[in-house]
Amino acid sequence: MFADQVFTFTPKGELISLPRGATPIDFAYAVHTKIGDTCIGALINNRSRPLRTRLQNGDVVKIIRGGEPEPQPDWENMVATGKARSALRRLTRDREAQEFQRIGAMLADHAFAREDKDYSESSIGDALKRLGLKNVEELYEALGRGDLSNSQFMEAVFPGRKDNAVENYANRESITDSTAKLYVKGDGLTAGVSLHFANCCSPIPGDRIVGIQEPGKGVIIHTIDCDVLASMDNFDDWLDIGWRRAAQHAASTARVTATVEHVPGALADVTKIIGEAGGNLINITTVRRSTTFFDMIFDLEVTDNRHLMQIIAALRASTYVVAAQRTMGEV
Predict the structure, then answer these.
(1) Which residues, 6 or more positions from 16, have their beta carbon under 8 angstroms from its beta carbon?
(2) What are phi and psi of 208, to 5 degrees?
(3) What is d(CA 112, CA 127) in angstroms, rounded to the nearest whole number?
């Protein structure tokens, strides 16, 4: 009759009936939601046991609690009760919302700083009404998720604010090592870990990316087709990561190598093409010159890899450009 149940006990002798296959996490939530939320470990029959342990009839379980809810990504697959599963999903949603709000608050502060303005939550009351948001938490979450761009946010704060192509890049946060956490996500990324973009492939939004854990360095972000990865065979160090939607509203620096005819007007045509395609030219380097051609490197601010390829396609269509391609390397 009770083949599908296990009968366990609290240290005080209270009976806790659970479905067969239940773990200490199920037990914790059966006792009380707050105990489940703060569960970090368990003693089963006075012995420390992993939280994935399947409970048996007669087990006496003591839950070890931490200060703040810290559910792990794989816990939902370890539980057998609907109550525990529902509670873990709620915690995951809450933590995700908090993380997006934290990112959004940073983006809001940076948006004001780029225009030499002091940011305070009291200065955006009217903007919340214009955006149809109830409170600053909703605003921060929308910014953090990328549902609201920095430009849209600033337009709501300062209606009628002028915005042109050049100013648009000025209003975009640059994606660098120091801002990587705002734009890269992944289940294996833990709080406090350092993120660095690999110089060998210089990833930009739209590139498929992977994280490689390197002791003492943190996580190095490579494009999935980076040549360096071919020599790495320890797949335990690989992390499945991707771009946050907020990356759509940021700026990345990419490098294009082009061979250009050495004739009057050629360079002016190339820079005009880049500008008309929405790129922001930040540096030009001539690496080789002859009486007929220049080999040049153009460092550009772009929104993503699709934008970059559109610029390269436009360059290749120019009568002055012999060849143009993305350079995968340090920018």
Answers:
(1) 7, 8, 9, 10, 27, 30, 31, 61
(2) -70, 130
(3) 14
Domains in the chain: ranges and CATH: 5-80 (3.10.20.30), 91-163 (no CATH), 177-249 (no CATH), 252-326 (3.30.70.260)
CB 274 within 8 A of CB 328: no
- Cα(246)–Cα(254) distance, rounded to whole angstroms? 18
Q: Which amino acid is at 51?
A: L
Query: In whole angstroms, what is the distance from residue 117 CA to residue 153 CA?
Result: 14
β-strand 195-197 against 218-223: which pairing, if any? parallel
Residue 29 dihedral angles phi and psi, to the nearest 5°: -70, -25
What the block records as the tokens of 75 is 């816990």
**How far, in Å, CA of 188 to CA of 277, rounded?**
37
DSSP3 helix / strand / coil % (the chain, rounded to 5)? 40, 25, 35
Q: Give the pLDDT confidence of 272-294 residue by residue, as tens digits.
A: 888 888 888 888 888 888 878 88
* pLDDT, tens digit, 9 for 90 and up, residues 168-218: 566 678 899 989 988 999 877 776 788 999 988 999 999 999 999 888 888
The pLDDT tens digits for 29-65 are: 999 999 999 999 999 999 999 999 999 999 999 999 9
